[in-house]
Specification:
The complex is a heterodimer of chains A (471) and B (474). Chain A is an alpha/beta fold and 471 residues long. Chain A is built from 13 helices and 23 strands. Chain B is globular and about 65 Å long. Chain B starts with a helix and ends with a helix. The chains are: A alpha/beta (471), B alpha/beta (474). Strand 23 of chain A pairs antiparallel with strand 20 of chain B, so a sheet runs across the interface.
Amino acid sequence: MPVNQGVQDIGIDQNKYHFITQDEPVFRSGRGLNENVVREISAQKNEPEWMLALRLKALKVYNSKPMPTWGGDLAKLNDVLDQIYFYVRPQEKMERSWDDVPTNIKETFERLGIPEAERKILAGVGAQYESEMIYHSLKEEWDKKGVIFDSIEDGLKNHPELFREYFGTVIPAADNKFSAMNSAVWSGGSFVYIPKGIELDTPLQAYFRVNQEQMGQFERTLIIADEGSKAHYIEGCTAPVYSTDSFHSGVIEIIVRPGAHFRYTTIQNWSNNMYNLVTQRALVHENATMEWLDGNLGSKLTMKYPSCYLVGEGAHGSILSIAYAGDGQHQDTGGKVIHAAPNTTSQILSKSISKGTGRATYRGLLKVHEGSVNARSNVVCDALLINETSRTDTYPYIEIEENQSNVGHEASVSKIGDEQLFYLMSRGMSKEEAMAMIVRGFIEPIAKLLPLEYAVELNRLIEFEMEGSVG
Amino acid sequence: MAEAAEATGVTWVASGAAGAASEAGSGGSAGALPAVEGITAAIHRGAVEALAADEPTWLRDRRLEAWSVYERTPMPTTRLEEWRYTDLRRKLKLDRLKLLPWQSRKFEASRAPVALVAAMAADEAASGHVIEIDGAVAQVDLLDELRSKGVILGSLRGSVRAYPDLLEPLLATEAVPATLGKFQALNAALWTDGTFLFVPSGVRLDLPVRVSRWFAQPGRAVFSRTLIVAEAGSQVSFVDEALSSDFAEQTFVSSAVEVFARDGAQIQYVSLQRMGWGAFHLSQQRTIAQRDATLDTLNVSLGGSVSRVDLSAELRGPGANSDMLGVYFGERDQHFDHNTRQDHIAPNAKSDLLYKGALDGKSRGVFRGIIKVHKGAQRTDAYQTNRNLLLSKHARAESLPRLEIEADDVRCSHGATVGQLEEEHVFYLMSRGLTRPQAERLVVTGFLEEVLSRLPLGGVVEKVTGIIEERLRG
């Protein structure tokens, strides 16, 4: 293979992600957020009374909470929120088969490569186009096993008791301003239930997509992994680029019951005008394991700190976080682990790359409550700086109330070493190729945990982003 | 906003405010606040005016300006990131405090408290001594040979009249001005006395300058300041020891410490805080290191019911170097809060911080540190480590080592650990014939000695390890 093949050749086609399809939403709420919008959403979805009450209460909480002053710059967010539509419903009925999906929407998916992905190894695809699942398939064997992989709306409709038992228990509306907002206007997302002892070999996938200009997306996902089960859920995002700011605020709640093992993977590649403010948290019971794999490549500002609440003895939490901040981007990401039971263990590994005027921030919390004897945790953060104008921050919070525990945190910041570059260039690589290779090596510990096609895509995105970084 | 102020390097407010707030919860409440906070029967503008009555105009103006900053600045709450773990509303009862007006004092060894005399006995070898009692300097001595070389060691109050040209530009202006925060402002308005040390170019002091500050009166608020200036190529070490009896009513001691190392100067500054129960000690320190200067600090916090240190090291000149060391040992319900900052403004500078604490009883240790590498501070080396030992079931530790990096050619790292005594180490010592308590004491002092051994200043290491061992024996 010729070594001097340019990086451009393997870069991805940006236009692939920057297209707009024409469609006609069936219903669109007015701009901005108020009680009428909330009532309208609930009515459109034919929801039970308790859900409407929950939404309205959440709206009050949202209005009572001040805008956060920490993290990223949210100064302009209110202007954005006044302009967006909090609910857009493109179609009325759920689609079960690919043939039923309208052509223009299908085109969108074709360009994103979804059908191929499905043909290959992907088992279930819940694709979120605008605010609701319109295409949702589930492998037959999973139906047989009793696995539920529904849109969140169908979850509420078809499994009301299970839904009501867990909805809002891991992340109550009052948790923070944006979880309150989401609780008031949520629309779309997944409802997943893995029955006792069931292990799924292939991941559950939801492909999220925002298309309508100035439309907020408030996906809500509720996952229950019952005792001894094992599964992997993948959420990937990409969005067309628009000139005005856009907004996404999801809430992901996961209950990992005793002995279960659950992994949740997000590769976020929102367009660079998106505010992405997400709350995701897992309640991890006895001897259960929760793994968050969180990749943040896109958006204008992301504030997202996947959390594990280790509430059962022997629970384990793991957070792997990778962030890429290019020009004008701020990735304010990290993870939180709360040790609230004995013999719990956790680890956080964070890798970030800042390029151009990008800013990557690691923000984390590690808390060990009194009584969590033998809790152990290790946090490692590495940051790579590409240009003089790049910025990186590390804000780990460590709060320990139990003396029979051991926790550690380490972070380091570096630039690409001249010696490393020189070595690779002496082997015939261009500087750009050498840099891309070093960056790939830097993220490799996380990339290798991704399913193959995601790892490939991640590597391509990194290469693409590294173009023009020399000089 | 904070960003803009940060660029000047003269604020404690970091931009990465209340991080995990949404999940960690913040202890404060956002209730309505009165327009002016912290004005009490004793602490008010009249008190500032009384202090300034016979002072030169520049100082009087400076005090009054500081007072107006104090009035304008809200009382810090736990909603403020840098006070997140120290709740002043619970820990500091300002309205119960009385001021201690400055009065001339004489030091009489025969009538001095035993603890003070004992502490001073270990400090015999020195370039000079300062004894401060309840916020007034009672005695100063300096070797004649140094005096003749132009070294100045004196009470701050006396130096205002004696050396106005040296003090006016530097006192509460560049290093710890009123604009840094509520308590910096209060100190700049109400300080009564303190120490002034000036070392001329090229003069080197072989022995440390030793300051003993004694606080005897309960229920008081005492404000004292230290100003150290080491001119180009000079060298000095300075040990500032704060001592007191136990107090039935809270006593509040506010110390502002300003340290300037000019080009190529070398300074070692040591603060040894050994106050009694009931004391709230607040030490707000800022060190400024110019080109090729070395400015090392050691903060030892052992006493007081509440002990808060704000230390900001500014690496202002290329080639500057700061080692920042700290040790704390807590028992009962002692509360220690160390808030540090490594401000890299110039390229090619280095800073290395190591703070270690052992916490027993129901004590609590907070470490909050930041490395800030400003734009253009290329080839910075900056490190930060905080290690905590929890010795009892109810002790707790919070650690927030933070980085903010705005240059790309840097080597920065930080680490923090919280853990328990290594049973293997204890076991090993027991296998050599020590009892368990002896072995544990040895492991703890060994843990803390790692820090002290990096700044081997005569008398300090022995003094500190002696105190810790004594306290470990209970």
